[in-house]
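Could someone model NAP with this protein?
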Amino acid sequence: MKTKVALVGIGKIAVDQHVPALAASPDFELAATISRQGSVAVVEAFTDFNAFLATRPDVTVVSLCLPPVPRFDYAAAALLAGRHVMLEKPPGATLAEVHELQARAEAKGLTLYATWHSRMARAVAAAKAWLTAKTVIRAHITWREDVRKWHPGQDWVFEPGGMGVFDPGINALSILTEILPAPVHLTAATLEVPENRQTPIAAKLRFSGNVTADFDWRQEGPQTWDIDIETDHGPMALRMGGNLLELAGKPIAGDADIMGEYPALYARMADLLRMRASDVDLSPMVHVADALSLGRRQTVAAFHF
Ligand code: NAP
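Reply:
Sure, complex below.
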């Protein structure tokens, strides 16, 4: 018997990744959707979350694919109704609200999984294993992509809580925090904010331990998702969003099949349910909150989709 899942917020990531991952899952079946406009063929569709909770007690897992700002209310209602919850990244609009969800899940003995899909990229585990017991001399993240391609028309990314370029940048930080053998903390940041928007379109970050990052959402043409690390045992690089591992410039592990990330998230959720455990690591979001707290703001040209 597969565990029944409801998907909330049928938009870009639900359609691109969650629906195919669930269709292929040995553990889960998509049993309902809740979305004001979106739906999935032959799956029962609700527009009202409370109506779903009241009529489908058989659906024990709720996977929230909404943008971060509206997500808390849905997560809190799902936990109150005794459902296990998966959160898209970033897990919320603020750290405090995710801590609150953690406490509520724990009090009710429910699983809360704050997913980080980039941690499931093909070469991240190999990179982490290689870095174990090595000394990082310096590291640099280059995360440059085209916001018009990945977030077409999504004005929420430029609204408060949308996090701007940190929406993709947090993927890089989720990998960094997973693979580094010792933690780092943010020491300085520059945030480039379009004059007509609330969140940065580009950011430069500096961390302790000679770690730096360059996030930019204005890159057209080839996209760059690289992490270059210099260690006491030579250079290591993760390319293509954590999917390829290079040692001393030579490819060692991984491939570019990003469709593997979401099936791996659902497999992890199945493990968490079996173990009656939760997985909520907020370290990537701490770095973003610190950058927004400490960052020097520069106003740049207006941005229009
Ligand atoms: P999206 O398409 O803009 O939003 C998903 C759906 O959420 C919308 O279609 C909408 O469905 C619903 N929604 C939007 N605002 C809402 C609100 N205020 N209240 C209730 N429902 C609302 O966003 P997305 O690109 O799928 O991203 C969603 C999350 O996934 C984000 O946290 C993002 O970081 C993460 N993610 C995105 C990508 C990507 O490539 N875009 C990749 C990985 C992860 P209805 O109008 O039908 O209600």
